[in-house]
Amino acid sequence: MKRHTSTSRTLFGLLVVSAMAFSLGCKQPAKKAKAPEADAPTNTTAKADTTPAGDTTACDKYKTSFCEAAGGDQSQACQSMSVVSALMPPAACEAGLKDLEYTKKQVAEMGKKCKELEDKLCTDLGEDTATCKMVRERTKMFPPEQCVAMLGQYDKVIAELKAEEEKNKPLSEELRSAIAAKDAASWGPADAKVTIVEFSDFQCPYCTRAAQAVDKVKEAYKGKSVRVVFRHFPLSFHQDAHLTAQASLAANEQGKFWAFHDLVFQNQKALSRADLEKYAQQAGLDMAKFKAALDSGKYKAAVDADLALGGKVYVQGTPTMFINGERVPNPTAFEAIQPMIDSRLK
User: Fold this and answer.
1) Are 55 and 178 in contact (CB under 8 A)?
2) Are strands 226-232 and 194-200 parallel, antiparallel or unpaired?
3) Which residue did the predictor score with more confidence, 18 or 72?
4) Average pLDDT of the residues of the chain
5) Which terminus has fewer CB within 10 Å in the chain: N or C?
């Protein structure tokens, strides 16, 4: 899915954002910026256990004990020790086992900065927020030097995380009305009790999954108080997405949006101008009007307006979906969408 922003993020911000992204999706490449050296991840994946199966060595025991003290196998300290212990002579590991309390004490001292960072962030974010919960989970995986670096640029880190928390709040009534306005292609009654708004990109493969989920919504809630609104968010690196969005609006003008929409998602890898004209013909459009709309760029401004509207509601990738102004965690799965609809139909 993502992310329509020019702001460079700290590694901590990236980890939290990726964990809170709610679903797989197409993402806009972020602009690269040089990060502080301390922010560079230590991606150590080598395994320490090089001994034959069943042969438990002193180094295996030392590594296991160290990892327990360091917060588990996923911690950076444990992963680093996995490499180091594979190179240590058994006598050194045996000595380490004899003075394991010293090791535990040192690990605890090293971890104090990460605990300080964790507590400070959660105090400022709010202990009950989803972002604080993610902070407490993710900080355990950071090496101490990274926590020190983040404390050194704390204002930037907390600003990013507060923005992420704000993004995930339900939309204001004004923004809900704006994204659900009648200018967009839609299905279902205008006065529906439940309004689903999807921001999509015709060239994004994850949006095909969302389209399939929406098909199930339309089938399951036909005749009920549910409305589906389609908004455009063509990502810059999808070269055919913007013109395809324009073409769909030309189809919408002739009352054929959903027929054209379905044909495009069924043939997502073939979206040239000639392909779009073929789908328009299959959908039964007046081809002279359709071609004229594309030639003149009649709907280019409308697509750009959807992009701008998406920016206002923190759409940072596709698909992004809202149900009555609340962001859907996984818009590619009907099973995730259905309970949110049902709870609002009661």
Assistant:
1) no
2) parallel
3) 72
4) 85
5) C
Cβ–Cβ < 8 Å for 166, 327:
no
- Residue 67 near residue 75, CB atoms below 8 Å: yes
d(CA 318, CA 30): 15
CA distances to 58, 177, 185, 190, 341 from 224, rounded to whole Å, are 67, 20, 18, 12, 11
Domains and CATH numbers, the chain: 11-167 (no CATH), 174-345 (3.40.30.10)
How far apart CA 32 and CA 93 sit, in angstroms, is: 42
Rounded Cα distance, 334 and 305, in Å: 28
- With a CB cutoff of 8 Å and minimum separation 6, the contacts of 140 are 71, 72, 74, 75, 114
Most confident of 18-27, 78-87, 116-125: 116-125
Write out pLDDT tens, residues 39-81: 334 344 434 444 343 345 888 888 888 888 776 777 767 877 7
E strand or H helix that includes residue 118? helix 100-125
Closest by CA position to 163, among listed 290, 309, 343, 13:
13
For the chain, counts of helices (H) and of strands (E): 16, 7
Amino acid at 328: V
Q: What residues contact residue 328 under an 8 Å CB cut-off, 6+ apart?
A: 22, 321, 322, 336, 337, 340
Sequence length of the chain is: 346
**CA–CA dist 138, 117 (Å, integer):** 11
pLDDT in tens, 259-277: 999 999 999 999 999 999 9
Residues 16 and 131: their CA atoms lie apart, in Å, by 8
